[in-house]
């Protein structure tokens, strides 16, 4: 474990941060905690667990990418012999054995720069929104294009691409992975438990804002790396525009000619049926997932509009928070 350092980012995570710190404490890895203006005693808690503390200057625009970069820089300055850095969000708990298993994998596979595993929701049954997150985290095993906020990364590879893009308010991990892969590295997802995440999404409004942020991230990612051969998030962006904007507009204008064209809206329930039939969860989860994936295109389209307006005005948008 002397090869591994850990960077945790958080703000007002409370007991979730305690679980996060305790899950790493026994590994003997050096822990850097980056705080973004907590008022719940998070800094004192992390210090009591032996973590190095960085408190971000909030007079500058905050992003998770900026926080991760600050923690990463501190780690490499204090522990120059460390080879790998585990990034983890403060609302997550690292599963026992993950740091050892993932570090061994990177040691044995010199062409892999980023390794991640299965992130699960701690309380998937508390709300349908938590359940949706748990399904979302379950991505395919093997070589991947991107990781999420929790991942073990080879330090020299991350330095090679100058870390995360601090200007991005969302989608910074996949964007970083694009640049990592462009340097010839691979991203890999192991068939292993990695972290327990506590989304704590209990209201529709939280789910809606999370999807607004997602739509913003898709548009930004496609704008940055949408050219061939990468085509980063171009397909996702186009699908959001199709279902969240073009189809409603076409039906609306057609119905002005004849209201019978409102029947075109039947494509939405048909889309729900199609997704539900191909998904591989329980029957109940399949229908809930299908409904919210289809409905989610509308807040995601609002997120894209936010991004394009921001770019048009050359104005930076503040982070979109849902908790």
Could you characterize what this model shows?
It is built from 12 helices and 9 strands. Strand 1, helix 1 and strand 2 form a beta-alpha-beta unit. Helices cover 49% and strands 17% of the residues. The protein has 323 residues and is of the alpha/beta class. Strands 1, 2, 3, 4, 5, 6, 7, 8 and 9 form a 9-stranded mixed sheet that branches. Helix 5 crosses helix 11 and helix 7 packs parallel to helix 8. The radius of gyration is 21 Å and the shape is globular. It has 2 domains: 199 residues, Spore Coat Polysaccharide Biosynthesis Protein SpsA, Chain A (Alpha-Beta Complex); 92 residues, no CATH class.
Notable characteristics:
single chain, 323 residues, alpha/beta, Spore Coat Polysaccharide Biosynthesis Protein SpsA, Chain A, 2 domains, 9-stranded mixed β-sheet, 9 strands, 17% strand, globular
Summing up helix and strand content along with how strands pair, one would put the structural category as alpha/beta
Second-tier CATH architecture of the largest domain: Alpha-Beta Complex
Helix content: 40-55%
Rg for CA atoms: 21 Å
Poorly predicted tracts of residues: none
Average of per-residue pLDDT values: 93
* Number of domain units: 2
Assembly classification = single chain
How much of the polypeptide forms β-strand, as a percent range?
15-25%
Q: Helix count, per DSSP?
A: 12
How many E-type strands? 9
